[in-house]
Amino acid sequence: MSEHKTFYITTPIYYPSDKLHIGHSYTTVACDALARFKRMQGYDVMFLTGTDEHGQKIQDKAADAGVTPKEYVDKIVATVKDLWKLLDVSYDRFIRTTDDYHMESCQKIFTKLYEQGDIYKGEYIGHYCKPCESFWTDSQLVDGKCPDCGREVYDAHEEAYFFKTSKYADRLLKLYEENPQFIQPESRKNEMIAFIKQGLQDTCVSRTSVKWGIPVPFDPKHTMYVWVDALSNYISALGYGNEKYHDYDKFWPADLHMVGKEILRFHTILWPAMLMALDLPLPKRVFGHGWLLMNGGKMSKSVGNVVDPVILCDRYGVDAIRYFLLREIPFGNDGMFTNEALINRINSDLANDLGNLLSRTVAMCEKYFGGTVHNVAGTEAIDTELETMVNELTAKVTADMDSLTIPQALMEIFAVIQRANKYIDETAPWALAKDEANKARLESVLYHLCEALRVCGILLNAYLPTTAPKMMEQLGLDASALDLTKTTYGAQETYTVHKGEALFPRIDVAKEIAHLKEEDEKRKAAAEAANKAKAEAEKKAATPAEESTVDFTHEEEIDFDTFCKVELRVAEVRACENLKESKKLLHLTVFDGERERCILSGIAKWFKPEDLIGKKIGIVCNLAPRPMMKGKYVSEGMIFAADTADGGCSIAFYGDDTPVGSRIH
User: Fold this and answer.
1) Residues 304-318: what's their mean pLDDT?
2) Phi/psi zone of residue 205: left (φ > 0), alpha (ψ -120 to 50 degrees), beta?
3) For 239-264, what is each residue's pLDDT tens digit?
4) What is the DSSP letter of 244?
5) 564 labelled ligand-binding
6) Alpha-carbon dihedral 396, 397, 401, 406, rounded to 10 degrees
7) Which runs of consecutive H residues, i.e. helices, occur in 428-550?
8) 22-35 b/e (C-beta count within 10 Å ≥ 16 → b)
9) What is the Cα–Cα distance from 181 to 185, expressed in whole angstroms?
């Protein structure tokens, strides 16, 4: 155990162009489990996450939404923080690249690199991928498209500043050779080596065509390219180059940068090269995890295969979703999200194995010993086997967490849980209870089960932070029992259990799959409709506008006071009939909130009386009564109606919750 050691772990800072999905949650929950486990070991942990808020995509999204970029990202960032709160993410610091202190640090870093000759002004001619915020040369494109995301690129030609990445190629290769743990998994390292050996290009680090970003301090027409801005967050968040925080000396270098495989290149080439140029220590490890796939592809809102973690948490519980993400996905490789896999994992591991073990154990302790059992030594080989598994568990889990094989750590814990369930079947406590002579043996069996549950609960606290305290409560212990120093068999002498609710209720698989399939189809249909609407809007925007058929002959201008004399109100149509004397006119009887009045309207060609009876419409109330049909009728107002493009007529109807007589403004 370590009292004074520190541990600094970071997630990527997420791009708030839209709400985050389950794939983003996977990365953050994995980091949270690691951070929680290190705290349990006694480390002083700094767990950093945040948002990367600059760049062209945000600028364009904000423009489409009719708001400023800052207004746009503020709204999305609020949803990010809400999601991390929901998922029990125990981050210590949240950085936004729009924070003043971060911008101050970035400008100092950029200036230093420029003044020492590592950044120079030039001209960029090449290709740019907007979704990835990446520049590419001709040779790097794959079939003319972005090699990372496979989408279209566009030609870019502008004045720009460049960072001398090529200067550090040899030092980077030496870094990989001398520090084999720097890039993980191993397969990713080979990709980076190949990328460097094909000829490392200097990196474009500014734009003049994008204004949403941090200005280059000595040349304000340039905006820092998003990656230099984003990568610097790992040290600016500790106080490097600013007075906001003073944790740089304590926590840097980072113990672990956790990133998605698609941005590993920036974190293992550009970022260490920048740190080399700044003469700063390098992070100890960069882990590039795989993607969480759905239907064989990466999650994408435009495809309609995005899974909303909020919906899943509301339906199944936060810890169930955390467990699925940490256990199901092979760490470092791509993993598949399916509804079947989620439900089966909840049922088999959480409901059947863990929940059932706790429920059975507590129930038997209450039934056979009034809830209290003591430490009675085991006498058989199966007792020793369970004790040994319990005693070896912490070391196994620790080794797995150190090697970042999180699913394996959970497998070790659940191997003990599964063994304890088997132990119940082997010892058959219900049979032992039939003979008073077996009372000591029965108590020993139940004590073994309580100990297995207690130790597993302590270790599960890093992964299931809501469930572990509930386990302790049912075992008659409080939160102080979640202590990693007490994971040896026999550390707890006595248990007084308290039966509680099922940890994870079992799910009806067939019924739930049908429900989720229906929801998936709705989501896909919505995405297809949105894509179709977007395509039609773009097509319409690209098509020259047809000459309008609307009559724009204007009436004489009136002042505001004159307009205010027109009394507009909501009225209810209580009766309506055709007139024998006219094919054009309808005779409406409307109630304006005070009285009924007659209105004649020339809309009979487009509306039948039954279309209007009971509806609420807008009328002009203070129009002078107008004799019509040779004085046979008097029309006491006018209804609101508009011409349509096909020469027809439309009427604005008000909702049922609109009070009759309401003023229309």
Assistant:
1) 80
2) alpha
3) 999 999 999 999 999 999 999 888 99
4) S
5) no
6) 110
7) 429-432, 439-460, 467-474, 509-542
8) bbbbbbbbbbbbbb
9) 9
CB-based contacts of 443, cutoff 8 Å, min separation 6: 369, 373, 374, 376
- Residue 543 reports pLDDT greater than 70: no
Q: What gap in Å lies between CA 604 and CA 646, rounded to an integer? A: 16
Gap between the terminal Cα atoms of the chain: 71
- Is the distance from CB of 354 to CB of 416 less than 8 angstroms? no
Task: Tell me the one-letter amino acid at 95.
Answer: I
Cα(54)–Cα(16) distance, rounded to whole angstroms? 9
Q: Round to whole Å and give the CA distance between 527 and 333.
A: 28
Cβ-defined contacts of 523-530 (< 8 Å, 24+): 523/304, 523/305, 523/306, 524/303, 524/304, 524/305, 525/304, 526/304, 527/301, 527/302, 527/303, 527/304, 528/304, 530/302
Distance CA 215, CA 221 (A): 7
Q: In this model, does residue 291 exceed pLDDT 60?
A: yes
Q: Are 149 and 128 in contact (CB under 8 A)?
A: no
Q: CATH for 560-663?
A: 2.40.50.140
Identity of the amino acid at 24: H
For residue 523, pLDDT over 90 is answered with no
- What's the token pair of residue 646? 């096909």
Which span out of 456-470, 534-548, 610-624 was modeled with the highest average pLDDT? 456-470
Residue 410 near residue 327, CB atoms below 8 Å: yes
pLDDT of residue 88: 96
139-to-168, 236, 546 alpha-carbon distances in Å: 21, 35, 44
Q: Is 149 annotated as a binding residue?
A: yes
Would you state the pLDDT for residue 546? 53
Question: Amino acid identity, residue 224?
Answer: M
- Which tokens hold the place of 466? 């809501």
Residue 2 has pLDDT above 50, yes or no: no
Q: What is the largest CA-CA distance in the chain?
A: 113
| Nearest of 250, 230, 232, 228 to residue 242 by alpha carbon | 232
In the three-class reduction of DSSP (H, G, I as helix; E, B as strand; rest coil), residue 60 is classed as helix
CA distance readout (Å), 654 to 569, 594, 617: 11, 18, 6
- Structure tokens given for 105: 């640090």
| Cβ proximity of 412 and 396 under 8 Å | yes
The answer to whether the annotation marks 450 as part of a ligand binding site is no
Q: What are the structural domain ranges in the chain?
A: 351-496, 560-663
Residues facing residue 571 across a β-bridge? 617
| DSSP conformational letter for 603 | -
129 annotated as a binding-site residue: yes
User: Torsion-angle region of residue 492: left (phi > 0), alpha (psi -120 to 50) or beta?
Assistant: beta
576 alpha carbon, distance to own chain's centre: 54
CATH of domain 351-496: 1.10.730.10
Token pair recorded at residue 414:
């659940």
Q: What is the mean pLDDT of residues 231-241?
A: 97
Cβ atoms of 45 and 6 within 8 Å: the answer is yes
For residue 662, the cross-strand partners are: none
Whether the domain at 351-496 and the domain at 560-663 fall into the same CATH topology? no
